[in-house]
Specification:
Layout: E1 52-58, H1 61-69, E2 73-74, E3 79-81, E4 84-91, H2 93-102, E5 105-109, E6 140-150, E7 153-162, E8 174-178, E9 187-197, E10 200-210, E11 216-221, E12 226-230, E13 232-233, H3 259-272, E14 277-281, E15 292-297, E16 305-312, E17 321-325, E18 335-339, E19 342-346, H4 359-369, E20 374-379, E21 396-397, E22 422-426, E23 436-441, H5 449-464, H6 469-477, E24 479-483, H7 488-496, H8 560-571, E25 575-583, E26 587-590, E27 595-596, E28 601-602, H9 608-629, E29 638-640, H10 641-644, H11 652-660, E30 663-669, E31 673-675, E32 680-682, H12 699-722, E33 729-732, E34 736-738, E35 742-748, E36 752-757, E37 782-784, E38 788-796, E39 817-823
Parallel strand pairs: 6-13, 17-19, 23-24, 23-25, 25-30, 26-29, 34-39
Antiparallel strand pairs: 1-4, 1-5, 2-4, 3-4, 6-7, 7-10, 8-9, 8-11, 9-10, 11-12, 14-22, 15-16, 16-20, 17-21, 18-19, 22-24, 26-30, 27-28, 31-32, 33-35, 35-37, 36-38, 38-39
Length: 826
């Protein structure tokens, strides 16, 4: 039996006005800081130097929601600290003032910031390997205790939960102690940080810098609970990466690539290696790197008029001029003259000879009398348009603002018009019989490293296929689909106009936000535009504001880029793995990805077997990242994305997992790197200097180390496709007679989901599933007080069922597992 598709229906809920993470500038604000008055003084596209990243501190999740709802652009890499949330905001000087008015503490410029090694109370880490007391009465549980080393320094990450953590008064404190190695006593007591998200207690957690690896830890609650557990290794003793082979070819990408370069190289690879590569063209064209030509004429007051051409700028809109003309005389009607591409508005005069045309009057005349040259004309933003329009000094030229190149942008004109996105498909057997892996990069335009990381992985596959045994296994046992840039329009805008562009270039904004001063805030966040757990169904993290960085679009799957992904996985049903590659922050995550803020109700959590498979795969992938230069994606940054980062309503991963049964990962590359010289963790950025510091922040180094991880993901998929071995499982302790109640749990030989019964019935796929004790914890413990017979079977991630049992047929073999716990009461 192969893997089943999951189909989960979500009940529609009223939309919540909650935003999470990224936006483009306060709604209604002019991101250029200009009045955009048109003519010779027309504002130019904002360069990255005008909006700079600063380090900020927020009091908590409520303040984070207020900041995002206000439209501010917060970078990835938010960090929970004991006293709130720290992160970065991309802001202008004016916006810093607005942040402070909300209550945000601005700590300084990004250049002087480094994460503390003392982590927070954030929600990150997880654990099928974790240890906990086997007793139903425990008030403290250790979810995980992980040791890792990087750049010569050791760290201990601990995550623990108390059953009394939700109470507000008194706040439960937890103390951690660890030994200094096997046989040594506990000591070195330190306080752990409590983390509450959306009003719900999550757990306590910390990352500690230690000189020696402890063997065991002890966590004590201020309410009296205590738990001890063993310390596990995180990413230690990993096998060497493919690059360890001296003859292995790598390091193909020597700089950032805009979409035209990425697509050109994808097509060239298909031409060079036709036996193992081809191009698939996605059916839905993007909006294109194009905009209507615009001008805001007359300042920003009640007399201002915003004008937009009917034609795209490059198709004639940029040739249109508009002039407001004062004529001598009195009692003159408002009129419009058109000569070629020149539009002259003859302003009305009253009986005394005074100008009498309001902004509303002029806008209406332009819409109806410009002979089709003007598509939209309206008062500025939310103005009533009652002001009297003044004449212009001369004709005002409309522009699409795309003729100006950002300083430092690569040479070459950007093609205008809709784009057909190519998919590079690599595999020796592209007949749908091998497990497919989808690598999707650059949903978010400003994230440049994901594209180079994906391209580097593709280059490694084709260049090493004939010379490297492991690469040959990948190419012959998987079917890989690369979308090197899923947002070509936005990416071009990021390269050539506004470096911080996040969304695509489809403008759904109404008149109030459609003036050119808002042009850097238009577009849809493609990773909020999907159907499962969406903002349209009341989940947090997607905005209804068209100028928010997390604008979810007017409806689910409104954008061609998101439609294309659904088309691809529908047509190629062999796609069983997916990696959506983002930056920056250094997280690797999966489901659940969103929650309803009121009560923190997440989308359904994966079964414990899938969760364990995700963790096992993550350890393999991240071990290969570490092998390049010892970059460690810490366990606090791995797990369900709503637990690791924030709620991201309508993300692609949830749609693919719940609708199509695809193991869908999200990856924030460019994580923090430990700097032994300063003793700090130093974070990356969306567009780190390519050469940079090869040991710290470097686009090149990030590309190479995270390409290692993608290559390992291919090996995970290949192993999955070849897996024909049934899992095994057992009840611990098993069959036997016990004097009094006993605690039992299931164990499996590999990540597997267990279906069980205790009522004497035959287990089926509709039977209860063995679940985690709590999210990010190992399996539940059953407190058995009366004689009970367990009947069960296990199913691994590849769909293999223990003992070849068929839960769909009621045959006579009944070769499921069984164990009876006999309780003899004293």
């Amino acid at each position: 039996m192969r893997r089943r598709q999951r189909r989960i229906a979500f009940v529609a809920l009223p939309a919540l006005v909650a935003g999470v993470l990224v936006a483009s500038g306060p709604a209604g604000a002019d991101p250029t800081g200009s009045t955009a008055t048109g003519g010779p003084g027309l504002s130019q596209p904002e360069d990255r130097d005008q909006a700079r990243p600063v380090h900020i501190k927020l009091a908590g999740a409520d303040m984070l929601d207020r900041v995002v709802a206000a439209g501010f652009d917060l970078e990835h890499g938010l960090k929970r600290v004991p006293t709130g949330i720290e992160g970065e905001a991309v802001v202008t000087a004016e916006q810093i003032t607005q942040l402070k008015a909300i209550g945000v503490e601005v700590l300084g410029d990004d250049a002087g910031f480094a994460w503390s090694d003392q982590a927070d109370g954030g929600i990150q880490g997880a654990a099928a390997r974790a240890v906990q007391p086997s007793t139903h009465e425990a008030t403290v549980r250790i979810a995980r205790a992980d040791w890792f080393t990087t750049k010569g320094q050791g760290f201990l990450y601990v995550e623990a939960r108390t059953t009394e953590g939700q109470q507000a008064e008194p706040v439960v404190e937890m103390q951690l102690e660890n030994d200094s190695g096997k046989g040594t006593p506990f000591g070195f007591a330190r306080t752990m940080s409590r983390f509450v998200d959306s009003g719900q207690y999550m757990f306590h957690r910390n990352l500690f810098k230690l000189d020696a690896r402890p063997n065991r830890i002890q966590v004590t609650s201020s309410t009296g609970g205590v738990a001890t557990g063993a310390v596990s290794d995180w990413l230690e003793d990993a096998p060497p990466p493919l690059t360890a082979n001296p003859s292995y070819k790598s390091d193909f990408v020597d700089g950032y690539r805009h979409p035209q370069q990425l697509y050109s190289r994808a097509k060239e690879i298909a031409r060079q290696y036709p036996d193992i590569a081809e191009i698939i063209y996605l059916p839905n064209q993007t909006n294109g790197y194009q905009r209507k030509a615009q001008a805001t004429i007359g300042g920003t007051g009640q007399e201002a008029v915003v004008v937009s051409s009917a034609a795209w700028g490059h198709e004639g809109g940029n040739d249109v001029t508009v002039e407001f003309v004062d004529r001598p005389g009195a009692d003159l009607p408002l009129a419009v003259e058109v000569a070629g591409k020149a539009v002259r508005v003859l302003l009305a005069k009253d009986a005394s000879g005074a100008l009498a045309s309001t902004a509303n009057h002029v806008a209406e005349a332009l819409r109806t009398q410009s002979q089709g040259l003007i598509d939209r004309a309206h008062p500025y933003r939310t103005n009533a348009g009652t002001g009297i329009v003044a004449p212009t000094a001369g004709p005002v030229a409309l522009t699409d603002f795309l003729d100006q190149k950002r300083a430092g942008a690569p040479a070459g004109e950007v093609p205008r018009g809709p784009v057909t996105i190519p998919v590079l498909r690599i595999g020796k057997h592209r007949d749908g019989k091998k497990p497919g892996v989808l690598i999707q990069a650059q949903d978010h335009a400003r994230e440049w490293v994901p594209a180079t990381t994906s391209l580097e992985s593709a280059e490694r596959l084709v260049h090493n296929y004939r010379s490297d045994r492991e690469t040959k296994k990948i190419v012959e046992n998987t079917d890989v689909f690369f979308i090197l840039s899923n947002n070509p329009d936005g990416a071009n805008y990021s390269f050539y106009n506004f470096a911080s562009q996040r969304k695509n270039m489809t403008n759904h904004c109404p008149d109030a936000t459609a003036d050119p001063g808002q042009r850097n805030s238009w577009g849809v966040d493609l990773n909020r535009n999907y159907r499962v757990g969406s903002g349209h169904d009341g989940y947090a993290g997607g905005s209804t504001s068209c100028v928010s960085g997390t604008y979810q679009g007017p409806e689910e799957l409104s954008e061609p880029e998101s439609k294309n992904i659904i088309w691809l996985v529908g047509k190629y049903s062999n796609i069983k793995f997916m990696m959506s590659v983002h930056s920056n922050g250094g997280q690797l995550f999966w489901q659940p990805g969103a929650y309803i803020a009121d009560g923190r109700i997440t989308t359904p959590r994966p079964p414990l077997g899938d969760e364990a498979f995700y963790w096992q795969s993550a350890a393999r992938i991240l071990s290969q990242v570490k092998a390049h230069r010892e970059t460690v994606v810490t366990p606090e940054n791995v797990g369900g994305s709503s637990d690791v980062l924030y709620s991201s309503a309508g993300n692609v991963r949830e749609d693919l997992y719940y609708t199509y049964g695809i193991y869908a990962f999200g990856w924030e590359v460019g994580g923090s790197v430990y700097n032994p010289a300063t003793g700090d963790w130093q974070g990356g950025s969306f567009q780190p200097e390519w050469a940079g510091n090869p040991e710290l922040v470097s686009g090149h180094a990030e590309t190479m180390e995270y390409a290692n991880g993608i290559m390992e993901m291919f090996r995970v998929a290949a192993d999955w496709g070849r897996d024909r071995k049934d899992p095994t499982s057992r009840l611990v302790p098993g069959d036997g007679t016990y004097r009094g109640p006993v605690d039992v749990r299931f164990e499996t030989s590999e990540p597997a989901t267990i279906y069980y019964t205790t009522d004497g019935s035959r287990p089926t796929l509709q039977s209860p599933r063995y679940a985690a004790t709590e999210f990010r914890e190992p399996g539940q413990v059953f407190h058995v007080t009366e004689t009970t017979t367990f009947r069960w079977f296990s199913v691994d991630s590849a769909g293999n069922i223990e003992k070849n049992y068929d839960p769909t047929k009621n045959d006579k073999r009944n070769n499921y597992r069984t164990a009876t716990i006999r309780i003899v009461k004293r």
